[in-house]
């Protein structure tokens, strides 16, 4: 093999190597571009899904907040009405009691004394049993 043939083969090999490396580089660029496009598509899809979900969630949250506010107003109204009814009932009981005491003062005093005696007896029984429990507990230690 002569020098000229050898130089020609070397040149051909060099050109072929450059051509192959250019093609490998081009393939790498295409792979990067393709990967970038796929990633962008995935991000766009995720963003779209998040926007759709938010579009469904936001109205639901507004409905929940509105219903909670309505329930709170109804509860306040009901509590106010119940308080007003309780005050009215208490006034009626007080009026009936005043009339009873005015009409029958002796009987009212006897009823009050009996109620006081019952309350005092209950208080004494409760205090006595509490004292016995304490003493029993103290002895067991």
What does this structure look like?
This protein has 141 residues and is an all-alpha fold. 97% of the residues lie in helices and 0% in strands. The chain is elongated and about 150 Å long.
Provide a short characterization of the protein structure.
The chain is mostly helical and 141 residues long. It has helices at 3-103, 105-140.
Proportion of residues in β-strands: under 5%
Main pleated-sheet profile: none
| Run of helices and strands | HH
The radius of gyration computed from the alpha-carbon positions, rounded to a whole number of angstroms, is 48 Å
Low-confidence region ranges: none
The whole-number mean of residue pLDDT values reads 86
Helix content: over 70%
SSE class: mainly alpha
Euclidean distance between termini CA atoms: 117 Å
Coarse shape: elongated
Count helical runs: 2
Q: Write down how many β-strands occur, each being a DSSP E stretch of 2 or more residues.
A: 0
Key features of this structure:
2 helices; 0% strand; mainly alpha; 141 residues
Strand and helix layout:
Elements: H1 3-103, H2 105-140
């Amino acid at each position: 093999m002569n020098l000229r043939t050898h130089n020609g083969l070397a040149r051909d090999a060099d050109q072929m190597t450059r051509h192959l490396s250019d093609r490998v580089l081009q393939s790498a660029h295409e792979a990067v571009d393709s990967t970038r496009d796929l990633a962008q598509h995935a991000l766009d899809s995720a963003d779209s899904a998040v926007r759709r979900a938010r579009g469904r969630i936001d109205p639901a949250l507004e409905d929940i907040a509105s219903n909670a506010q309505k329930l709170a107003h109804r509860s306040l109204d009901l509590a106010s009405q119940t308080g007003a009814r309780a005050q009215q009932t208490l006034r009626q009981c007080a009026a009936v009691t005043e009339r009873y005491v005015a009409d029958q003062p002796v009987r009212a005093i006897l009823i009050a004394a009996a109620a006081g005696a019952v309350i005092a007896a209950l208080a004494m029984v409760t205090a006595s049993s509490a004292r016995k429990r304490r003493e029993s507990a103290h002895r067991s230690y």
